[in-house]
Amino acid sequence: MAHKDQVFQKCINPQCGSEFDSHQVFFKCPACGDLLDIKYNWDSIELPKKLSDFSNRWATRSNRLDFSGVWRFRELLNFCDDEHKVSVGEGQTLLQSACGLAADLGMNPDCLFLQYEGMNPSGSFKDNGMTAAFSHAKMVGAAASACASTGNTSASMALYAHSIGVKATVFIGEGKIAFGKLSQAMDYGGHTIQVAGDFDDCMRQVQDVCTELNIYLVNSLNPFRLEGQKTIMLRIIEGLGWEVPDWIIVPGGNLGNSSAFGKAFAELKELGLIDRVPRLAVINASGANTLTELVNDKGLRWNGGDVDQQIIDSYYANLDAANYRADTIASAIEISRPVNLKKCLRALDVCNGVVLDVPDEEILDAKAQIGACGLGCEPASAATIAGLKHLLADGTVDKDARVACVLTGHLLKDPDATVNYHSKAAREFSNPPVQVDNDLQKIIALIKS
Ligand SMILES: *Cc1c(COP(=O)(O)O)cnc(C)c1O
Ligand SMILES: [Zn+2]
């Protein structure tokens, strides 16, 4: 029986399919433990006739919701009243044409685009999701929020928690966290707890803590968060004059972004607002390549929602037996148990997607090439271009296909990675500083040389 509310939550497992009202706070289906989706009765929502109608909002940017790059698409994620919608000006991001890089990759120069999400208030795409999660938190009157984080989630959470006056507790693993990110969580007043374990351990702990203490969880398990991340795709389409690209390429960590993108395209197609769905490439780091192994080696598929849980369970049992720890310079995607795995499989199904993994050296080379275009990013984001090189080489992506890569985080999130790369003169794209004596003639000679 269809739910009567305009908005409701629904378990993604077709065998379960339980429905819940949008005021309830879960991060997993209470009936079966699977992931939850936000669903809309579209008939009861007044939608624009065509996507380009959203352009009208540019004229009314003094309205904070029309200014927000998330909420100006609000009809497509209208799960709360306008008064509950939180915004700190997220989503003012750029789809930049990258002709030089395209030519370097042997592509048609007019065909490569970089969606630079580093321009968000906290410097990563996470703000797209956090604005939505905190709007729901405000709607349900949450008093405290928490997340496990490799860094960017905590920076974004701390920012939005402050904006609605709720507590923010961050769970980080010991060891690798980029300092740019940690500095934000601390500066924005987040309560930072460092757990003796890695991200995957933190992710397990934070779920139990949130259940026990009734804290609002803002990891990408939170289905409301993913609604906000759908708008990254709308802004790409907008940047292409309301045309759909041929390919979307995104790094894969906890797989929230890829999941949200697939949901966005499925909905837009269903609503007749787009006539075709782009293909999706999700790129793992080789040191954190669960998705790649499960899909490419073990043949795991969405399969109409009937995902083969046995394949997943035995894969994780092997990781445990080997005491495996994800390990990559791309700390934002250093995750071996992606919580949104099943939703990502669904996105791959919707978008006829592919997955692959790329080694750290290739990520760092790609990062330097992106930087040389004048748009810096952090290592995880550069997995997109590193992956694209493989997809061009094996013919999966045509050189005349229009490709949009999502640059998920700002260059300054992880300056250590950048400085280390450029300091080593031997790297293909390194640009090390040159030493010179404190002497005018020598400096001039050097510059002229
Ligand atoms: C969180 C994050 C990712 C991973 O995104 P998922 O949605 O977890 O797959 C990639 N890059 C950056 C910069 C991130 O902050
Ligand atoms: Zn269920």
Furnish the topology, listing elements before pairings.
Layout: E1 7-11, E2 19-21, E3 36-40, H1 64-67, E4 94-97, H2 99-104, E5 112-116, H3 126-140, E6 144-149, H4 152-164, E7 167-173, H5 179-187, E8 191-195, H6 199-213, E9 216-217, H7 223-229, H8 231-239, E10 247-251, H9 256-270, E11 279-285, H10 290-297, H11 309-321, H12 341-350, E12 354-358, H13 360-372, H14 379-393, E13 403-407, H15 415-423, H16 440-448
How would you describe this structure in keywords?
single chain; 449 residues; alpha/beta; Rossmann fold; four-stranded parallel β-sheet; 16 helices; 13 strands; globular; binds pyridoxal-5'-phosphate; binds zinc ion
Give the H and E element order.
EEEHEHEHEHEHEHEHHEHEHHHEHHEHH
Present as ligands are:
pyridoxal-5'-phosphate, zinc ion
Strands, count: 13
Proportion of residues in extended strands:
5-15%
Structural class: alpha/beta
Question: Per CATH, what is the topology of the domain at 94-121 and 225-422?
Answer: Rossmann fold
Biggest β-sheet: strands ordered side by side in the sheet: 4-5-13-10-11-12
What is the terminal-to-terminal distance?
Answer: 76 Å
Rg, Å, rounded: 22 Å
Helix content: 25-40%
Uncertain stretches: none
Summarize the structure.
The protein is an alpha/beta fold and 449 residues long. It is 38% helix and 14% strand.
